[in-house]
Protein 1
Amino acid sequence: MWGAFQNLLKVETIRKKIFVTLSLLLVYVVGSNIPLPGVDFGALHDWVSKRDSGVSQFVGLINALSGANINAPVLMSLGILPYITASIMISLLVKVVPSLEALSKEGPSGQAKINRLSRMLTVPICVATGTAVVVGNFRPGVLGTTNFPVVPNWGFGFVVTAVIGITAGTIFLMWIGEQITAHGVGNGTSLLITAGILQDLPGAFKTLFQRAVEERTYILVAGVLMLLYLAIVIAVVFQTKAQRRIPIQQAKLVRGQRVAGGRHYLPIKLNMANVMPVIFAQAILTLPSTIGAAISGDPRGGFLPFGGWWWVVIETALIFFFALFWTSLMFQPNEMANNLKEYGSFIPGIRPGKKTADFLQHVMVRITVVGAAFLAVLVFVPSMVASTMDVDMLVARFLGGTGILIVVGVVLELVEQLNSNLLQRNYEGFMSAASARRGLRR
C-alpha cells in the first residue's frame, strides 16, 4: 500500500488533484468554524466548551447526515444539507415526472440541466431552513447564558444577516463540491459530508483516551470498542460491496476477427438504497418527537418520547418499507427485461419478457430485505453500546448509524477512483496481489 501511495505522488496530474482536494477540504473546515456577524466570540467559545451533548435527536441526525453544525451560529452551519435535499427531491421527481425522466435520458446535456435545477432549488430551501434554524436555535435563550448571550443584539437585523450568511456559506460549499468533482479526486459533495462527519472523530478519541487515563479499568472497554469498530467497518465494507450476480447469456456476434457475446453477469447490489432508508425512517420518527419536546418543554419528547421498544419496532418497519420503496423506484425490472430482450440476451432457464421481469423483481425483493435487516441492526448499534458498556454517545455513534455507512461508502469510491487512475498509467493499485506479495517480501 505504501508503494501505491508513492505511485500516486509520482504522477503529476494525480498529485495536483490530491492537492486541490485537500486544499478545498481545508477551506471547508476553516469556514465551518467562522462565526456569523453579530456573534460574541468570547461567549460562543464559552458556550461551546461548557455545553452538553444533549441536543435534540433531530438536530443530531441532520448533523450526522450532512456534516453540518446546525446548533452552532457559524457561517457554514447548514453544511451541504440544502443541496442534498434538493438533489434527493429532483431524483424522486425524475422518476415520476415524464418530462424530467426524458431529460435525464438526453445524456450529459440533460444531466447538466437537472443539476442546474438542483442548484436553483437549493437557494429557496437554504433560505427557508436557515430562517428556521436562526429563529429556533440562535435565540439568546438557547445560545449561551442569560447574562452572556452568544447573540447580544438579537433582532430582525441579525436574522436577515444570519440567513444571508448561511445561504452564502451553503452556496460556497456547493461550489467547492463541484470544484472537487471537476478538478480533484472523488465526488466533491460526498467528500464534504465525510469531512464534516469526521470532524468529531478527534474529539471522540480524546474523550475515550481521557476516560481511559482517569479510570484504569476503562482501558479494557476502550480495547473492546476498537475491536468492535474494526469488525463493524469490515461488515459495512462487505455489505457495500456485496451483490447478487445473475447469469446472462448474450447472443454471439462476429465483429471482424473477434467474437463478442457469451455468458456474462448482471450484478444487483445487496443494498441499492444505501443510506436513504435510514434517513427517511429517522427523519419521520424524530421530527414529531422534537416538535413534542418543543411544545411540552420536556427534552425527552413529551407525549412522543424518544426511544423505547415502540421506537425500535416502528423505526425497523420504516427502514424495511423505505428500502423496498426506494429500490422499487430506482430498479425497474420491466425496463431491464425489455433491454435484455432487445439486445438478444436472456437469463438461462427464464423466458424473456414478463417472466424475466418477474424473476428480477423476486430477486430484488429478497436481497433488499436482507440489506434492510443489516441496516436496521447497524442503526441500533450505537445506542446499544452506549447503554450496555457505559460509553459516551459521542464515541458510540461512530460504531454504527448513518455516519459509518456514508464514510465507508465514500472511502471505497475514492479508493476505486485512485486505483483506476493508477492502472491507466500501468501502476499497481492499492489492492493488487503483486503489491501485497512485494510487501510481504520486504
Protein 2
Amino acid sequence: MSNLPMPGKNVFSSKYKIGRRELLRLGLGGFTSLGLPGLFNLRSLASNSRPSENSAIILVWLRGGCSHLDTFDPKPDAPSEYRGPFKQINTNVPGIHLTELLPGLAGIANKYTILRSIAHTGGGHPAGSLQMLSGDPDAQDKPGPRYPDWMSIANFLRSGGAKGIPNYVAVNPVDRYDSFTIAGSTYLGSGYDAFKILGDPSNPNFSIPNIGLRDDGQRKRLSERIGLRESLAQIMKSIDRSGDALAMDQFERQALDMFLSTKAQIAFDLSKEPQKLRERYGLNSWGQQCLMARRLVESGVEIVTTEFDGPLCGRVANWDDHAVNHHVFDALKYRAPFFDQAVTALIEDIYARGLDKRVLVAVGGEFGRTPRISHVASSGGGIASAAAGVVQPGRDHWPRAGSFLFAGGGINTGQIIGATDKKGEDPVSRKVSPEDFLATIYQHLGIDYKNITLKDFSGRPTPIIRSGEAIAELSKT
C-alpha cells in the first residue's frame, strides 16, 4: 500500500508532510532531462524590455579570413605580386566592381553595401575573431573569450516569452578555431549561448534531435504527463510564497512548448521548401545552411549565425589560405561558386519575402589576407593544394584591412563604404573598427550600445562595447 495520502486527505498535515524539495522533485522529475528549462530560467534574468522586437540578423562567418583583394576589393592596377589572377567585373551598380569570382553578387549589388575599410590589431585567428565578435581590444591570442560575444548579449537583452523556438540559433556554430574558443557568453552564463545545429543540412538523412514530436501517440502521452504535472504545480504554487515554483513552471512550459509544438520542427525542416528553391541556394552544406537561416528568421528567430568552412573550402577546410595550406587562387576559385550562389540566393530571398527591412545579413570573417602574395612549399596535397613540398602562392593574415558585406536591415544599399590604398594594404578613407561593426549590429537590433552595461564575474558593470559608433552611411535616418 502506498504511503502517499489518499484522495481527500490534507497533504499538508504533519502525517503526510512533504518537503518543498521533494515536491519540486515529484513535480518536475522527468522533464528536466529535456535540458531546456534551465536555459529559459537563466534567460529570465535578462531585461524585460525587448527593443526592436521584429528585427533580426543573419551572420555568415568566413572562418579563417577571406582575401579582400580577390573578392570584394579588387586591385587591378596593383603590381603583379599583389593583384592576383582574377579579373575585375562590373556590377549592376555603376562604379561598383567585384572580381570575376562573384558573378551572382555582381548582379544584385543594388541590394547590399560593401565596407572595404575594416581594420584592427588581432593578427591571429583567435584574437581577430574575439575583436570582431566581442570587441575585445587585446591583440594577443587567448584560449577563450574575456567578454561575451554580441550574439549572446543580444540574446540576453532580447529574450523573454515563449515562442516555441530558440531566440539564438547557430547553424554550424561560430564558436571555435582549432583548440581556441572564439565566442561565448562568458559572464552572462551558458543559458545565453546558441542553440547549435550540427551536421550537413544538405544530407538527406539530416535531422535535429529533440525538436518536436512527429508521432501523435508520443505527443498524446507526453501531454497526459503534463496534465499530471500541472496538478502538482498547483500545490507547489500554493505553498511557495517566493514565486520560485511559478517561475519554474513558466520555464518548463517554454521548454515543453518547443518540444511539443510543431513550430520549431517546421522551421528546421528544409523539405518544406520547393526543390527549385533548394537548388537555387545550392544543394550543398553552405547553400542549405543559408536556406535554414532564412527559414529561422522568418519563423521568429532573431539571431542566426552560420559558418562557412568544411570540405567546400578545400584541403584544410577553412579560408586560411597560407601557401602551406592552399594554393590561394585555386582555393578561391574552387569555393567561390558555392559561396556566391548561397549568399546571392539568401539576399534575393530576403528581399523577395519582404524581410529586407527587419533582417540584416552580414558576411565576412576575422580579417583580410596579405596583399603581397607569398610563395611557400605546400604541406600536403588535396583539393586546392599541390603535393607536399611543391611551392605555391598564398596570402597570410592581414588585420590591417578587410571587407564586410551588409544586406537588408533597411540600410542604404548599392554603395561602397571606405577604401584601401592601391595595394589594398591599409584604409585610406573611412577606417572602421570592430566596435563600430558591433555598434552597427546593436543599432539594428535596437540595443542602446552607448549606455547598456552588464555585470561581469566580479559584479562590476561592464559596457557591451567600450568604444565605437554605428556606421552612419548604412543608416537611412
